[in-house]
Structures are given as structure tokens and as C-alpha cells.
Amino acid sequence: MTPTSLTPPPDYFQYWNPEIETMSRPELEALQLEKLKIAVTWALRTPFYRERLPKAGINSAEDIKTLADLKRIPFTAKHDLREAFPYGLLSVPKEEVIRLHASSGTTGTPTTIYFNREDIKKWTGYVARCIYGTGCNKADVFQNMITYGLFTGGLGFHAGGEEVGMLVIPSGAGNTTRQFRLMQDFGTTVVHATPSFLLHVESIMRSEGVSRDSICLKRAFAGAEPYSEDTRRRIEDLLKIDVYNSYGLSEMNGPGVAFECQAKNGLHLWEDGYIGEIINPDTLEPVKDGETGELVLTCLCREATPILRYRTRDLSSFYTEPCVCGRTHRRLRRITGRTDDMLIINGVNIFPSQIEEVIMAMGEVGNNYLIVVEKEGVLDRLTVKVEVGPDIFMDDSRPLNALRDKIRKTIQASITINPRVELHESGALPISEGKAKRVQDSRPKDV
Ligand code: DLL
After folding, report:
1. Strand pairing report for 420-424 and 141-144
2. What are the phi and psi torsion angles at 333 (to 5°)?
3. Which residue among 2, 129, 279, 375 sits deepest, i.e. has the most Cβ atoms within 10 Å of its Cβ?
4. What's the 145 CA to ligand 1 centre distance in angstroms?
5. 56 alpha carbon – ligand 1 mean position (Å)
6. Rounded-to-10 torsion of CA 364, 369, 374, 376
7. Which domains, ranges and CATH numbers included, belong to the chain?
8. What does the pLDDT read at residue 447?
9. Which of 93-97, 148-152, 272-276, 433-437 comes out lowest in average pLDDT?
10. Reported pTM
């Protein structure tokens, strides 16, 4: 279904937990207040918040009287989690912890999130709610083509899929040829992957001559990295499936924070589990209703590692109108990037997503691209490397030159910077099994 489709019949939308998903806003806010008080109690048990909250005049849950009191709680940032490593945010005895997940820690100390049994149960419930809300049920065969391990995407979706009662194939990421075999052997109907891996799967399927009719795929959950509406449409058209956007982050458990329903028009933030705010990242004040800013999230559903008012760095906004599906939980717009993704090229601010939007809307372009930024003398130089589509031949220079020129001009019209464009044949650019690395910025860091 596309966002502009006619209104579907009333029984089209399916809810995992109808009472919670469609509860009135006043009821939902009352529930949030009750859970926020509990989350503050959990937080006050951790060394980190025991030091921080009293400075803001919060000494117990009694100090939270209305949801507006949330604003009195100071923000928590990524560096706070690093400083609190390893146990500064643990609020239960270690014996009660049954699992941990951690970020990759590419910039130093990893951030670690602990779960007790109840936390895992609640997280699984949110992921199951997301999956069921896309129309899946226990008749589905679900191939989880994402990294298992410390990354939350593998085990998080695995547990959610089992909770819905689907047959879960824990295939993990990578090994594309084997992924097709599994799909064919077991009749996979749903997959979960990063959007870049889904595009890669489609390219390999084409180059290996795997027929679309030999698989019975209907849906994909795609997330863990930003992608544009054009990329979604491209995956849907090429694979003939419905793609649902899935948003989450390890600090808020992992996947299962916000997800698209069958209307595929914005991601419902599960507000009985998370409180969402959008702030201006410079002033730290809330933006006006519907405006874009940084998403700040408070976790209401995890005791072992409580995190309040976490600055996600992700840029989004809330839709102001309700969803046709009847759920009352507000919808987030597709995340367009992160405040720390922004590239400043010769003084012009751009987000990689602006380049992706241009490229993925062009039919002649293939499924992979790379943005390279270098220093050339005193100036910055932007190169966009693009794989060509299957209908373009690398030995025919006329159409190649025309395509190169078209890409260059369209990018320039969008971001005002004139890039160098390199065309590559399908499969030539690096792919990553996890989150795609779309930007290579080799400029010295202190310039
Ligand atoms: O990526 C959790 C996840 C797993 C989400 C599987 C969806 C599917 P982290 O590794 O902590 O957790 O990375 C979180 O990834 O702050 C966003 O910047 C980005 N991100 C996640 N989902 C989306 C999405 C998982 N749908 C960070 N669109 C977040 C855009 C996304 N960015």
C-alpha cells in the first residue's frame, strides 16, 4: 500500500495490543506519567543519576508530578554513557542481569546496556508489536538477515519474530548466495536487513540469475541506517515487496522503538515505552509542533539500565495529524540524518541523505554509491562514486558521459556544490554486512 492509497477497510489494520495501541491520548499520557515515576526511581538507584538528578531538584519519584516535570530532568548524552562505563548506569544487582548489548565503540569506550529478565520480555513485546503491525502472523517465515551478537538488531528481531509465532531463520548478515538458498528452501515470506544489504541482495540476485518467481518474499523490515523514500521505492519495485521502516537504537533497547504500520507513512513511536521530544540542537529548546529537530528519548521500559532524556542526535519531526490505522501513538518522519553526520564542504552544510535522494531517484543508476571528501590544496573536494544500473554498458562512452553529467548537475542543483562524479560497474563499490559506510572523509580532523 502506498501512503496515498484509498482508505483501507476497517479490518485491514491488525494490532498486537489493541488496547494500548489505540488508547486515548489522555489515557496514554497518564500511563506515561506513571511509568516515568517508576523510571526515575530506577534511575536514582544508579551512581550516575544519583549524582545528577538531585542537582536538578529531583530526589525521588515524588518530585515528578506531571509530564511537564520531564523538562526538569537534565539531558543524557553519548559521552555520559561512556563516562559511566561499565556499571555507572546499572540499577539492579549484577545477579539479576541476564544479557548485555553494546555499541561497536569505534570512537573508544563502548556503551553498554544491561537487561534483566523483565526488560527482555518488554523489549520483545515492542518488537512483536512492530512486526505484527505490518500484517505478519504465525504463518510467515522470517529470515533475519542482520548481524547477531552485541548488535541489537539480530537478537531483538529474532525474539520478536518468535513471539509473533513466525518461523524464524537466524541467517544473520552476509553470504548472499546462501540467503537465496534459504529463501527458496524454506519459503521465506519476510526478511529483515539494512536497506543497503537489501539493495545488494537484489543486485546479486540479478547477476546470479535467481528468478523472482523462485522466492515468495512479501515484506521486508529495513532500518538501522538512514535511507530515503526513493531507496524504499527502489527496493519495493525491484523485489516486488512491501518495505517497512524500522527505527531504534541500543540506548533505547535496540529495534522496536518506532516502526511503520501497514499505512507506511511515518513511524509510530511506542509512547507507552518511550517518551519522545524534538529539540533544537543548538538552543536545546523544544521545536514547534511538526518542526524538525533532534529526537530526545526517555526509556520507560528498562529497569537494569534506565536512560532519561537521551539526545539521540537523530533528526526527525512528528506528524501532527493522526494515522489512518487508528493508532494514537504519534508518528515520526523518516530520519534524514544525524546532527553529527553533517558534512561541511567548503563552508556549505550538507547531509549525505541529500545526495542519496538525488541518486536513488535515477533509474539508470545502480544500487550502491560512495561519497568521498578530500582536501585538494586548501579546498575540499567532493567526489560521488556511483554504480551504474544493469542497462548501462561500461564500454559505451556516450551514455556514460551523459549520465555522469546528469548526476553532477542534479547533485549541484540540490546541494549547490559541484561534485566530481565517477561511474563504476555493478558490484565494484565496497559493501558492508552491517550498516553501510557511505561517506569516506579523509580530510585532516583539525582543519
Ligand atoms: O541500529 C538498532 C536497530 C537495529 C534499529 C535494527 C533498526 C533495526 P544502534 O546500532 O545503536 O542501534 O544505532 C542506532 O542508527 O541513532 C540512527 O542514527 C540509526 N538508525 C537506526 N534505525 C534507523 C532508521 C540500531 N530506520 C542509530 N532510519 C540511530 C535512520 C536509523 N537511521
Report:
1. unpaired
2. -75, 155
3. 129
4. 15
5. 30
6. -20
7. 3-26+113-339 (3.40.50.12780), 342-441 (3.30.300.30)
8. 43
9. 433-437
10. 0.94
